[in-house]
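Sequence and structure are kept together here, with a separate record for every protein. An example record follows, reproduced without changes.
>
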Amino acid sequence: MCLFLIVDDNEIVVDSIANWLNRAFDNCQYIGVSSGEEGVDRARQRDVDFVIMDVHLPGMNGMEVLQLLRKSHSA
């Protein structure tokens, strides 16, 4: 089973992506969050396979989130 993390401050976008994922993949789950900080926290709590993220987020922007995720998940 794959796990997607969707980070976007627009709930409609998160729901749209989640609906598409549910139709496109038989065996996947998703976590939808509305801020970069929450995305980093969730990625630290769960082992996510894919991240779909907006660059323009309130507070921490998408590039900052990407840098933190890369640091915390580097091998």
About this structure: The mean pLDDT is 92. The longest strand covers residues 2-7.
